[in-house]
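Try this one yourself first.
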């Protein structure tokens, strides 16, 4: 188990359904939730992306169900939700972390390339929220959507992701208003540059990383652990009156307009 500043039981008895939960930031969130008492269902397009995280969670004494599902496919999402409920009896927390990303200039990006990322990030987030609504209504549960800060200003080579994540933030706000009456809290996290992810290694050349580090007010890149801590806080009872917020976790990076591309 990793070190924690929280008590180990803050999510005790909860069942969390985490898309993209095998790797990266959302993998960290899944593992952290398991280490704080939750039972986990993790999804990804490919089972092989889930097995190592399932083993890690189980080796740490947690319970984990791995279900392959493409969030673009509503029926597959419905099936994954149904399997989770059959296995654990309920769902309390939904984390939307499945995301697509690559660097591409707008004048070179195909319509299908743009649409693919919007389909994964935005439509995928809606699909999972919509398909889990009845379960969340029953559990008075909550949703945590992972977006980004790319669209707060403008990020070259990221028009597709910026548009997609702006849509995710809109979903967070709209659902918090529409579903708050059922006791469902809907919040988001907008991570800044997080250094220990495959995505960041792939998307950010090393020389640019040094340049950006100097311009981050807190003087360092984020770590997956920073996002895990924000996720534990937002999904715990400590945040019981927080609804409709997308919490920026970026060391103050976006306020200085330091472009990531
Ligand atoms: C230009 C590209 C491309 C690239 C794919 N496409 N990769 N265009 N540059 N590098 C285009 C294809 O040409 C095609 O359009 C369309 O996208 C669909 O491609 P497919 O390969 O058929 O789609 P699919 O297999 O469904 O998914 C592709 C993918 C996905 C979206 C690229 O494999 C992916 O994103 N993998 C990485 C996942 C990842 O790293 N997630 C973490 C995200 S981190 P045409 O027109 O040719 O048919 C994150 C944080 C944000 O989101 C902040 C970061 C700074």
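Now uncover the answer:
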């Amino acid at each position: 188990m990793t070190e924690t500043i929280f008590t180990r039981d803050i999510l005790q008895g909860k069942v969390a359904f985490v898309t993209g939960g095998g790797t990266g930031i959302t993998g960290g969130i899944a593992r952290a939730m398991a280490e704080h008492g939750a039972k986990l269902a993790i999804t990804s397009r490919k089972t092989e992306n889930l097995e190592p995280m399932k083993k890690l969670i189980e080796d740490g004494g947690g319970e984990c169900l791995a279900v392959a599902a493409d969030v673009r496919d509503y029926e597959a999402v419905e099936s994954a939700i149904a399997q989770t409920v059959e296995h654990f009896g309920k769902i309390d927390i939904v984390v939307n972390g499945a995301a697509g990303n690559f660097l591409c200039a707008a004048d070179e990006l195909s319509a299908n390339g743009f649409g693919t990322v919007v389909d994964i990030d935005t439509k995928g987030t809606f699909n999972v929220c919509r398909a889990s609504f009845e379960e969340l209504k029953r559990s008075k549960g909550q949703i945590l959507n992972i977006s980004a800060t790319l669209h707060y200003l403008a990020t070259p080579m990221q028009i597709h992701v910026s548009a997609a994540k702006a849509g995710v933030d809109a979903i967070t706000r709209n659902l918090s208003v529409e579903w708050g009456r059922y006791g469902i809290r809907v919040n988001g996290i907008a991570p800044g540059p997080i250094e220990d992810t495959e995505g960041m290694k792939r998307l950010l050349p090393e020389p640019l990383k040094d340049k950006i580090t100097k311009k981050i007010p807190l003087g360092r890149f984020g770590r997956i652990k920073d996002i895990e801590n924000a996720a534990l806080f937002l999904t715990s009872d400590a945040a019981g009156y927080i609804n409709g917020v997308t919490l920026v976790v970026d060391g103050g990076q976006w306020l200085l307009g330091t472009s990531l591309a």
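Discussion: The chain has eight helices and seven strands. The chain has a mean pLDDT of 95.
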